Amino acid sequence: MENNNKHEHLRLKLGVSGAAETGHCGIDALDKAKELGREIARQGAILLTGATTGFPLWSAMGAKEEKGISIGLSPASNQKEHQEVYRLPVDYMDLIIYTGFGYSGRDLLLTRSCDGIFIGCGRIGTIHEFTIAYEDSKPIGILEGDWDMDEVLKNIMEKSNRVNDRIIFDSNPKRLVERVIALVEKIRQEEKQNLG
Fold first, then answer.
1. What CATH number should be reported for the domain holding residue 120?
2. What pLDDT score does 196 carry?
3. Which of 75, 130, 140, 195 has the fewest beta carbons under 10 Å from its own?
């Protein structure tokens, strides 16, 4: 993906959603999360997370290893609340946006700010971010790994009575990022053609 400084606002913004507490994620969660972040940076996209610990933090670590840009959307109103009340990190973030909307409001802003979102190992907060993105017909990359989130989401999708054909499952972070970026670019091209 070409980076044209004149049009930085056009750079893809790709979110990563996943568990803040990762005890249930299995042994490969750290490696897969970091590789997901590295690949987002390698592909020239900006990483967005919920400015939290665990899987999203690990993806931010990976992005920073590749000198990528990492933006966090915090549930807190300010840095003091972010660190002292929510007990969230400030490391590996180039910018933290303090939403002041708690977890639920932050989740909505995070998913709506992304061109596409990746789902890793997670729990209820991850499901919340997934369902918002699903309802909004966002491109979603579901990273399969040594956890059951992918199976939980398949079950939700089967029972949802709604269709979102912009969902990709893959166990390989590099391939998943490539596929989601291709889908986002295709959607952008279709939208551009529809405009004129």
1. 3.40.50.450
2. 67
3. 195
Reference 107, options 79, 78, 135, 130; nearest CA is 130
Q: What average pLDDT does range 29-46 have in this prediction?
A: 97
For every residue of 139-186, which 3-state class applies, written as one string? Answer: CEEEECCCCCHHHHHHHHHHCCCCCCCCEEEECCHHHHHHHHHHHHHH
For residue 7, tell me if it sits in a domain.
Answer: no
| Cα–Cα distance measured from residue 68 to residue 36, given in angstroms and rounded to the nearest whole number | 12
Range of the domain at 132: 19-195
Cα separation, 140 vs 164, in Å, equals 9
In a domain? residue 2: no
Query: What are the tens digits of pLDDT across the range 79-106?
Result: 999 999 999 999 999 999 999 999 999 9
Number of domains composing the chain: 1
Asked if residues 54 and 21 have their Cβ atoms less than 8 Å apart, the reply is yes
Q: Could you tell me if residue 11 is inside a domain?
A: no
End-to-end CA distance of the chain: give it in Å, rounded. Answer: 24
96-137 pLDDT tens trace? 999 999 999 999 999 999 999 999 999 999 999 999 999 999
The pair of structure tokens assigned to 196 is 């004129």
Half-sphere CA count of 104, side-chain side, radius 13 A: 0
Q: What is the pTM of this model?
A: 0.93
Burial class (CB in 10 A: 0-12, 13-18, 19+), 174: middle
Assigned domain for 44 exists: yes
